Each structure stands twice: as structure tokens, then as C-alpha cells.
Amino acid sequence: MSIGLAEAIFPTVTEAELPADSRLIPAIEFRDVDLAFDDQVILNKVSFSVDRGQMRIVLGPSGTGKSTIINLILGLLKPDAGQILINGEDTTDFDDQDLMRIRKTIGMVFQEGALFDSLSVYDNVAYRLHEERVPEDEVEHEVRRMLRFVDLEDAIDKMPVELSGGMRRRVGIARALVGNPNIVLFDEPTAGLDPPTSRTICELAVKLRDIEDVASIFVTHEMNNVEFISSEYAVIEPTGETRFQEAGKTFCLTNTCVMILKDGEIFFEGREEELMASTDPYVHRFIRGR
Amino acid sequence: MNLLKKFLFELQAVTNLLWRSIKGLRKRPRYFADIVMQMDQIGVGSFGIVVLTGFFTGGVIILQSYPTLEYYGAQSSAGQGVATGLIRELGPVLTALMVAGRVGSAISAELGSMVVSQQIDAMRALGTSPVRKLVTPRLIALVFSLPLLTIAADLFGVIGGGVVARELHGLDMNVYISSVRTGAKFADLIGGAIKPIVFGLIIGLVACHSGLTTKGGTVGVGLSTTRSVVLASIWVIVADFFLSKLLQSLFGSTLF
Fold it and tell me: What is this structure's pTM?
């Protein structure tokens, strides 16, 4: 992909909606967030932040609050205590209307794609634009560009039921990127996919991180995703093609951080190299499976 | 005590859903296309079964009552029974029960499937309120469609009664129509129009609430669909009693 094409796909990155010093403000910030359902503690004093162009990989076994973090960012859940800031705005006590405004700056990729069954691929991707009553010719232009980004322009007229699992996720990514959000949340987007398709999804996430300057949270429990995202970066060739290069031993990627949750708390936070070097039995059991 | 607590929580949730749907009407976008589509699915789609139900109900009223009326020499009042029975009670209640079965279950299953496949979460994440996009159009469509369907059921019930009276009992059609006109009072028509509005709200709220609170995958969708039909049917019958009492006190006890 050329710089020109990348700029054409993400021309504004919602700059107009962001504060002038937005690069100094974390895109996502959790400050001592607590959440419990009845007596079960889900999150306990969780604090972290994600800047633009950074990715935070959230690891952990099922039921440790990975998806809860995403639901809190979207405002689908309210914390019992603490603050959640999106692009510098404290959204903790926002009402539905303010949350709807905030959600428009966030793209969300769901585990199974969560495409609307009754709508075609075109209408799914165009959903946000149709809601905003954007003229149809502009909608079609935007939809085609997003589908080109995920390499699915040919599927524009298909219904979700006609798509494979990987194609559904890619359409989900295209839908999430409409409106140029500066935050993208991935909730186990590769679950149940074969390795090549998983890699394609990870490549899209890396492209967003490295080329589009998007802040992202990538929830997963698959170590091969962690290894790929933490060790490869995207560059644009003079020919315009996007190429993925391994960071190797010459330098390490500082824009990607791994976080492991345990019993509602951040158990590990650091780079993939630190994760792999950890001798902690819990981390070891989780990454090695034994 | 637990049952009472659960009932009160459910009532609170349904009332909250109604309030948010009404509040959503003031804001843009208003989803007129969705309202029209729902009216087509709910109103036009239910027309056939409602008409059939009305026709045979009218017919069976005459079938059962005619011999007794004949015994007392009151055959000429046969249409009166159909008119009052259908317009006051059977028309609105049977139409509501048919719509609860056909439409209530469909709404609950559709919304339930959307919940378990995260489509509702996706809608919220895309900045759309599911209440405004999904609940409000269905409620409006039901509130407008059900009175019209009830009128159709009443009309075809009267026709069904007339067909049975003439074909099986040889009653003159003019006599039948004249007795129908005597039986159908203006207050009956008002009552027959008010009840379906309330029933439409009940069916819509119960079905939408049931669908949106679905838990536990496809099994959950089945359970919420069953719950929706059962609860909507029960509440329609309970509400009918209290509405009849209210209308009686408003228009006089002889009418309702």
C-alpha cells in the first residue's frame, strides 16, 4: 500500500474531533478501575494507558476480565470505582448520548465479526455512514476503500451468511474502520481461524498500528498472535506495497505492550521479550501451556 | 418474596424500556423506514391469520347461539351477539393473541439472536442506540397495526357470522345486518380501538424486553421466545379484564 493510498483510506483520522495536543494525551487511560459482579471481583485497581500508534495485547485465561476491559472502554459497562478516559475525556459518568459520541471515535472488531445478518456486506460496512445520513455516492466510495483495505472488494454484494469465518472478521474490521476511528479494539478476532487467516487479521492490526497511528487493544489468548504482533512491523515500500519486517535482534518494538490479567489485577505488564523471559510459574504455564 | 422481587425488577425494566423508547422519539435519526418495514411485517404479514381467526370466530358464535335464539324466537337478534361479542372482547383479544404468537415470538427470536451473536453490542459500538433503532419502530408499528388488524378481524367476524347464519340457518341477510347495526354501539367501537393500542404496547414491550435480555446462546433464544409468547398472552388477558372494567366505569356498566 502506498503512503498516498494509506492517506486516501484514512484521510483525517478524526483529527478534527480530537484535542489539539492529542498526541500528548493517551487515547485510552484506566485509573484505578474497580468492577465486581455481586461478590465476584472482575477488575481490582486496574490502571494503564495506550497512546496513539501503540498496541496493548491483553492476555489471560477465560473469565479474567479481558473482554470486560473492552466493554468498559465502550461504556457498555460502568466501573464501580476509578476513572476511564478516552482521548482525554473522562467517560466514567457519561450518559448514553455522550457515550454514543465517544463510541463514534472507536472501532470495535468482535470475536465472530458480529455482522448484521439481514444486511449485505456493503450495508454492514456502510452502517455508520447510513446512520449519519451521508450521501450515497460518498458512502459507496468509502465502503469500497475500506473493503479494498481488507482485500474484500469482490464480496461487496454478498450476504454475511455467504462468507467464511475469516472473511466475516475482515468485513468486521472494515466496518470498524469506517469513520476513521483513532482507537480500535480487537476482541479475540482470530478465535477459531486457521493460522494463515489469523496472520492476515494480525497483519491488518499491525498496519493500523504502524501506518495509521491507531491506538489499539488486542484481546487474545493465542501466543502465535502475540509473537507476530510483537515482533513484526509494517513499512511502506517505494513501490507502494506494504511489507512486514521482523524486528529481529537489532531493535525491539516499543509500541507494543503485553498485559496479563489474573484475579482482576494486572499480573504482568511488559514487552514480549520480557514475557518470554519470565520465570513466573503462572506466566510460564500460560505461554507454554504447561 | 423472591418472585415478587423478580416481578418488580422486570416491571421496572419494561417501564424503563418504554420510557427510553418514548424519549428516543424526540431525537434524530428517527428510523421512519424501519417503522414502515415493521408495519409491513407486522400489519400486512398478520392480516391473513387475523382475518381467518375473525371469520371463523364470527361463524362459531352464530353456530352456537342460533339454536338457543331460535328456541326463544329471537333469531332476528343473531347479529347482535356477533357484533357485541366480537367488537367488545373477542376481536381485540383474539387478534392480540394471534399477533403475540406470530409477531411477539418473531421479535423476541430476532432480538435474542442479535444479542447472542453480539450484533446488539456491535450496534452500540457503532454509536446506535438499539432501543431507538430496534424497539421504538416495533412498538410504533404494533400500536398502529393492531387496531387496524382488530377492525379487520371484527369485520370478517361479522361476515363469517352472516355466512353461517344464511347458509346453515337460512336467516335473511338484511335481518342479520340490521341486528349487527343494533348491536354495535359507538362506545363499543371506541373500546374496541383502545384495547388493541394497549395490547400492542404490551406485546411489543414484552417481546423486545424478552429478546434483549436473552442469555445463553441458542437455547436462550428459544427460552426467551417461549417466555415472550406466554407472558404477552397472559398480560393481554389480564389487561383486558382491567381495561373492560375501566371502560365500564367510563362509558357505563351496560356497555362493557
Answer: 0.82
